[in-house]
Amino acid sequence: MIETDAAQRPGPQEELEFFTYMEEPIRFAVRYGEDRRLPGRPGVLAREVTLSAGWPVLQFRLPLSAQGDPRGYGMLEREVSAAVALERRYGAEKFGEVFTRVIGFDLECAEPFVLYRMPGGTPLAECRDRLGGDEQQHIIAQLALAVRLLDEVELVHRAIAPDTVRWDGTHVRLCEPYAALRTGEAREAFGAAPWASPEQRAGRGAADTRDDLWSVARLGYYLLSGHPDRGEGPPEDLGDYRRLAALEHSGLFAAEAAARPTPVELMRLLHVPDPLATAVGTADPLSRGRAEYDAQLARKREVLRGQRPGEGPFHSGSRNPYEPPPASYEGPRNPYDLVPPRRSLRDRFFGGGDPDPTPTPPPITPEPSPPPPTRGRMCPHCLLPIEYDESLLVTIDAKGNRIPLDLSGEHRPAHRQDALRKAYHLCPHAGAGDEAHELPVPYLTNGEPLSIALVGSSSVGKTHLLAAILGEVELGGLEPYGLKCLPLNPEAHRTFLRERVQSLQQGRQLGRTGQQTFARFADGLLVSARGALPRPVVFFDLAGEDLAQDGEVARFLMGVDAFVFVLDPLRALRMPSLDPVREQNGLPRRDLGDEAFTTVLNRIPRQSGGLVGAPATIAVNKSDLVRFEPAVDRWLGRALPPRLDREALRAESRDAYAFLAHHASPAWLKPFDDCARCTLHFVAATGGQAKGDRFPHGARSRRVLAPLLSIFAMCGLLPEAEPSEGRA
Is the whole-model pTM more than 0.70? Predict the structure, then answer.
């Protein structure tokens, strides 16, 4: 039952500005009706809005009073994404009338909203008794068509029921997709028996288009029998209804989704023509870019195959800082292949130290204290070899003073180990003043380090992206992939969390990274893969000005193990819809690419084939600015899968490459062209635009772990295994 908010009354005519489903800004004079609260949509208010001289539409909005729960905004955003996807795909087609049609939206205003055409027809719950047999069959057929259309755009509606489906004598019309999920996403508990499937009601498994077919079957039975069934399996009297024989024998009433037919199979059984099978499709604007991606992969594969022994990116005999493959290696099957165990950074610079041929790292053996490494490794700051020397241990007090640490008299293993966990090791090559530096002791007493540099000009969002990544890690985001993380240094990590991660999660915009005279990593983790020796992972986040200048501060790049190239759509994409945001932020578009990309790629070593051996990713940050583009929406609208999916990684890279090739100049794809292994990802560190120094609806990161997981896979740190128990 709809409740009226007595505090809201029709008001005088005002103006309303919003975006069409093609993201074109538009403004109307409006008059608002009364607010209503809707069952099944907590927090959302509905009201009729009259545009200009008498065009009534329906508005659903999230009032300020309901924005304390971030899930409310996320549900509205997901609804808008689904509605826009349907309108863009089927809006010009007559059969698109089976959906409630979206008019426009604004997700950045103080009270985000979406506008729909007024729904026509009568809910099936109110008109069932007046329907004839032919009308009932027609409704079932159109519901099957609607699910087929949803399946084509990888959506599951999840709210098909007698009170949400309308009939106007010609068309059925599904309600707004406020409960929609992407196919393959984890099911969220929603709906009630008998209309929602048992799996959907329980929130078990992955969303499947056949969840909607369960609802179609229950509606078909309801229309012909005049009453709902229990909703647990085939109705007991199903055989009494001859018109349901085709549905019964198809398996449509099966309790498990896997046993039900697909929408195409159901339409064939019902003798319903499939308009998508005969429609003349429009040319895909990204098809050329996808072909270019395939050609580039083939080119790089041939380059690697054509190298002489000792020249590839993984061969153990090379003195190049990036390890080449053995002579039998024929190039990567795809750009995110796992690589063999790598030598230490020192050996990669100065030679020696053949890698252990065993692909699996040895399990951790409990020790009273971390043993010193068997051979030295490279300081990631100054790129000089450093040996573990207990006489160089220090602690750092609150004022930044380095205090010598003497553990010679500490014989309690637990106390000694705890002291070393928090201690630093002075670099013997450190200069005075700004270049004085030290390393957390765990960096020297664990497995092979992995250094990752975020690359991009100023204001592309590198700092926000790193904060979002480490925020997800802190929340356990890597655990489903079999990875455990500890801080490299507890105090430094707490400081980063407090000053960066927590500030971002509280909706505050982070300040720009200041320029440095000496490169220091921003934070570090100890990452272990199911009992293997932990590996230190350190992240460098330098100011864009430092990266764009070929100066001494960026000399550390020569020894970096992996790169995240952070791409800003505002600078890269030739899309008119971004022009207002560009003007607002003072960021002109650049066809020459990112200066920092070019400077870094020109500086880091190449192998003989001309390719960079270090693994890399291109993170298309701020993807929320183009979230309704089909190629972006396909990925940004989904959560990351709970296990490494190589085919999905390749598909996302292919889509992102094609999207950039279509909307940006070739210069923006230089990292992919130059790096032997490079993946591409759509990510959003904040999920919205800042107003002043705050994000009005909070920071909502999307898929920010994708670049990190890709690098971990390419560096042999990500185990290929099923998700952890209980985290499916």
Answer: yes
